[in-house]
Design brief:
With 119 residues, the protein is of the alpha+beta class. The protein is built from two helices and seven strands; from the N terminus they run βαββαββββ. It has helices at residues 14-29, 57-63; strands at 4-10, 38-42, 47-53, 66-68, 78-81, 97-103, 106-112. The strands form two sheets. Strands 4-1-3-2-5 form a five-stranded antiparallel beta sheet. The chain has a two-stranded antiparallel ribbon with strand order 6-7. Helix 1 crosses helix 2. The chain starts with a strand and ends in a 7-residue tail after the last strand.
Length: 119
């Protein structure tokens, strides 16, 4: 029985780039959800793993997570990271920031206008 979704973000520094991508997807697909996923360290593989509950299935699939059973975060094999995603900050320039998101195999784009700084 599948209770949610999971995906390895890889070891150490690789996880940071994946988190940035995930936070951008959260902005597009789950903007009002404070904690759309949970992070844990797998002490056997030394990887950071992201877990999504079933109600975040669209976000999980867009990020490439696969169905899984609910994790048993016991503090030994899986150690919970009390990570709360920060909002993705728009770049400071006069151009629009375009965020492309894969949803059900199709690319969707959302342009977010960015105000140019006052001179």
């Amino acid at each position: 029985m599948n209770d949610g979704y999971s995906k390895s973000l890889g070891p150490a520094l690789a996880a940071y780039a994946a988190l940035r991508e995930l936070n951008q997807l959260c902005l597009a697909l789950s903007p009002g959800v404070a904690r759309p996923y949970a992070l844990a360290i797998d002490t056997f593989t030394v990887e950071t793993v992201v877990f999504f509950e079933e109600d975040q299935a669209a976000l999980a699939r867009a990020f490439g997570a696969t169905p899984c059973t609910a994790p048993f975060i016991d503090g030994q094999r899986l150690v919970a990271l009390d990570y709360v995603p920060l909002p993705v900050v728009a770049p400071v320039n006069a151009h629009a920031d375009v965020l492309s998101v894969a949803i059900d195999g199709q690319i969707k784009s959302a342009a977010t206008p960015v105000d140019s700084p006052a001179s």
